[in-house]
Structure formats: C-alpha cells, structure tokens
Amino acid sequence: MAITTRAIDIPTTQGVLNAQLYEPDAAGHAPAVLVLMDAPGIRPALHGMAARIAAAGYRALLPNLYWRATREVGFDRAAFSREGDPERERIFALARGYGHAQFRIDLPAMLDALGASAARPAAAVGYCMSGRFALQALAEQPGRVVAAASFYGTRMVTDADDSPHLWIPRIAHGDAYLCFAEHDPYVPAGVPAQVSAAVARSGARHQIEHYPGTHHGFAQPDSGGFDPVAAERHWAAVFAMLGRIKR
C-alpha cells in the first residue's frame, strides 16, 4: 500500500512536540497508532517501522519524546555500543529526563493530533523505555486508547511511587500485549513475573510472551540484539492486536 509522510509540530501545554506522521494514501477512517521510540530516539530504523505500520493501513505517529531537550537526537549507534563512550551517557541522560509526568502531558496532545476519540480509538506500541508509556496510554486515556503493546519494556518495576507494576492493575479495559526477551540486561530477573502478576490483576484482555533466545532490542533492525525471526514474530503480534481495533 502506498503511503505518505509529513513532519508535524504538535502544541502541548509546555511547548511544541515534533513528530512524523505516516498515513496510507487512502487514510479515510484508518485507525491511529502511536509508535513510541526506544531510548536511542527517532532515527531511520524507527521511521521504517512506522512506515511498515502505515503500509498495513494505519495512521502511524512517530513522536520525538525528547523534544524538550532536542528536536534531533542524531544517534550514533557505533559509539553508543561502546562502554564508556560519551554518546552512551548522552542517550541515557535523555532517557532519564523523560518519565511518566512528561508523557502524561504529551499524550493528550498526540491523540488530539491523530483525532483519536471513543468513536475512532487509537493503539500504542512501545519499545524499551516506552513499553511502560504504551501501557500508561491505555491506563490514562481509556476513552481514546484501546490497545497497547510493550516490547522489552524497561523500568517496569522500580521503587518510585509511579512504578508501572503499582498502577497496571488499575487498567480497566482494552487489549494489552507484553513481550520480554530471554536475555535482557535492562530488565532485572524477577521483573517479568512481577509485571505479569500486575497485568493479571487488571481488567485488560492480555497476552504475555517470552521470546526464547532473544536479546534486548530484537525488533529494531539497527540494534545489536536484532533477531529477524523474532522481529517478524513481533510484527505478527502487533498486527494481530491492531486488527482488533474498530475502523
């Protein structure tokens, strides 16, 4: 399916969030999808993933969640992969500077830009740092977000008062899909079990999977953990979830 893409600026109560919108040529009533970035930020690999979602018949918004700090991340994958490299700390500092409070401000503005409503609900798909934000969208915008997928989500269990494992049980509706990698230094042992227990107490229809043999980042084609077989399994899960959104 042919798609179009355009850069858009989205006003929020704190400033202007920049994003890329991908749409099928005949967008019509195509459901909206928030494609939420992993820690390295917006880059060609994520543009390609958003484009694939649009090519399947959805309107995909890829927002720069680091907009308060920079409009362009300029990610250097090779430098990021080297322990001790300043690029690695720069990316992690950006990720540490964005949390639930910032996403709570950005989310309504992004949904407004997509025209998401109870009549035309959206879905959210998050990776790495944004796995928890996809679930937050489902928890906090129940009238406009009806499905969320989290792939190797980080910081799902913390000591903070807003730790996801504490509020996930309050999700009252929708579809939730969570996937964990078998080998993941960013997800401590025991966290998947705690998150699974929290989801089981929620009101969401849910599916939780562990992809054997995989590593963190298996879905991103520019990641050192990329696994083409697991990535296609991930796409099948994403499109199965999106296919349940009413048009």
Description:
The protein is α/β, with parallel strands linked by helices and 247 residues long. The protein has one domain (3-242): 3-Layer(aba) Sandwich (Rossmann fold). The chain has helices spanning 44-55, 77-80, 86-96, 100-114, 131-140, 164-167, 191-200, 228-242; strands at 3-12, 15-24, 32-36, 59-63, 122-127, 145-151, 175-183, 205-215. An eight-stranded mixed sheet has the order 1-2-4-3-5-6-7-8, with helices on both faces. Helix 4 packs across helix 5 (131-140). The longest helix is centred in the middle third of the chain and has 15 residues, at 100-114. It is globular.
Task: Write the topology of this structure.
Layout: E1 3-12, E2 15-24, E3 32-36, H1 44-55, E4 59-63, H2 77-80, H3 86-96, H4 100-114, E5 122-127, H5 131-140, E6 145-151, H6 164-167, E7 175-183, H7 191-200, E8 205-215, H8 228-242
Helix pairs in contact: 4-5
Characteristics:
globular; 8-stranded mixed beta sheet; single chain; 33% helix; Rossmann fold; 8 strands; alpha/beta; 8 helices; 247 residues
Shape call: globular
CATH topology: Rossmann fold
CATH superfamily: Alpha/Beta hydrolase fold, catalytic domain
The low-confidence parts are: none
Count of distinct structural domains: 1
Integer average pLDDT: 96
Would you summarize the structure shown here?
Helix 4 (100-114) packs across helix 5 (131-140).
